[in-house]
User: What shape does this take?
Amino acid sequence: MSARTVPVIALFGSSDHTDVAEALGAEIARRNCILLTGGGRRVTGRAVTESGLDGAEAARRDDGVVAARIGVLGRRHTRVLVDVEDEETKIVLGLAVGDRRNYVNARLCDVAIALDGGDGTKSEVAFCLALGRPVVLVGPRWRDEFPVTRSKTEYDLFVRAAQRRVPVGAADELDRLITDAYDQLGPDASSDVVHRSLDTPPSELVTEAEEAAGRVGPVGAFPELRDPARALVAETYATWLTTVDERLSAARTA
Assistant: This one.
């Protein structure tokens, strides 16, 4: 049983809603929760990942909050690494696993807020559902792509979109975990999912995410990848998480 008390809230989505993502990143930081999103920056433009991090960093600068952030590097990063930055308030994890990092994102979080997105976002949501993480779906496209009442056909289309980005493989431990996750998905599986509009205030969305995280408890954890390089990343992450949880817990009760 984890001793962690502060929720890890993941923020997923495409580049279409950067303003919403920035506001959510700031709100998550002000609540003294832990923000999880992508760790890298695009060559051009901004995505939800960068915007969420920017919002949290702005809240840290302007409001003096801890703004704990987890970034998981994606497809372009080919080196296993772990960096602790910003006075130990931010950790960047590189596992050199390409788009399979979407599964890792789902494993690390306790709850996710997912803005409208493409196949990558759908894969992150699919893994969250398979692993029992609650999800707050934000934006109009989710009404069609993952409706409240789903037929088997609609569910299969959603899962196939996720598999286009993160296909089933058989190469290593992570592939086996991903295959197991897909096997857990089905239209009759129970899921903690709510739909909200883009104009829902960020404070309400984060409150909903916090409450959902409270229902499942601190379930987020690093996947068991036993090769030495990734085991070192997991060890460093666990130490960082314990330290930042203590700081955030003190801030939440102050």
Remarks:
- The domain at 8-247 is CATH 3.40.50.450 (Rossmann fold).
